[in-house]
Amino acid sequence: MNPIPQRKIMIRRSSRQIELYDGNQLLACYPCAVGKNATPTPLGNYAVSTKVINPGGAFGTRWLGLSLPDYGIHGTNKPSSIGTQASLGCIRMHNHHVEALYNQVGVGTPVVITE
Fold first, then answer.
1. Which Pfam families does this one have (predicted)?
2. What is the residue extent of each domain of the chain?
3. Which of 22, 59, 77, 111 could hold 46 in an S-S bridge, CB 3.0 to 4.6 Å?
4. By the 8 A CB rule, do 64 and 114 touch?
5. Is 74 an active-site residue?
6. What superfamily in CATH does domain 7-114 come from?
7. Active-site residue, from 32, 90, 94, 97
8. Among this protein's residues, is 90 annotated catalytic?
9. Catalytic site residue from 32, 74, 94, 97
């Protein structure tokens, strides 16, 4: 799938929110879980590098791999962790939210992780 040119994902660690933009227009905002203090979600500019439906296990129903190896945005089998610092550095979302996000972005979509 080709990237949708103006789409961008912003992940705000401090507020534990994922925002999807089309240009400067906010399309959606979702709660998420981020890395624990010992295993923080890395700040920086990345891109969606892979998309997987039903990756299994703790990754819920969707996986959006980042250009930073071993990190991604994914669903969860622990929905009570959303809104907390709970992961080993990945970004967790409710399965229905990650499914919606998955359908709106392509490989190559920029992902910016800020404090």
1. YkuD (PF03734)
2. 7-114
3. 111
4. no
5. yes
6. L,D-transpeptidase catalytic domain-like (2.40.440.10)
7. 90
8. yes
9. 74
